[in-house]
Specification:
There is one protein chain. The model has no long low-confidence stretch (mean pLDDT about 75). The protein has one domain. With about 130 residues, it is mainly alpha-helical. The chain contains 4 helices and no strands. It is about 80% helix and about 0% strand.
């Protein structure tokens, strides 16, 4: 197809359903960010929980829980990044819908990056649990 054919095609106007679908997607990202942050809080406090169990069993309370604190903090920051990046993505897609330039969009990089990051966190958690 040449440039003449591409410019001759009429632009398809965005429908209200497109806007509502983008709104649902944005809200799903907000829920994802909240879930990642909540999970990060749990992980950050997990080391403290393990320490309390050791104390209750008569063990030494000197075990450090810094790794779970750092991992939990990383997850909380990942949730913040999800919020910021999803807001940016939402604004761009709404602007594209307003300009009727939505066709041919690439897959969401945010989803791919988040999936890889959470996979790495999962591997880190498996290593952490098996090391204690």
């Amino acid at each position: 197809m040449n440039d003449m054919d591409a410019s001759a095609r009429p632009r398809v106007q965005a429908d209200i359903r497109d806007y509502l679908a983008e709104e649902r997607t944005f809200l799903a990202w907000i829920r994802t960010g909240l879930g990642v942050m909540a999970f990060g809080f749990v992980v950050a406090r997990f080391g403290l929980f393990l320490e309390q169990i050791r104390i209750a069993e008569g063990g030494s309370p000197a075990v450090s829980h810094q790794r779970s604190l750092w991992l939990g903090t990383a997850l909380i920051l990942a949730g913040v990044a999800v919020y910021l990046l999803s807001a940016r993505r939402h604004r761009r897609l709404i602007a594209a819908l307003n300009r009727s330039q939505f066709a041919g969009r690439a897959p969401s990089r945010l989803a791919v990056v988040l999936a890889f990051f959470l996979a790495l966190v999962g591997i880190g958690m498996v290593l952490y649990i098996n090391a204690t």
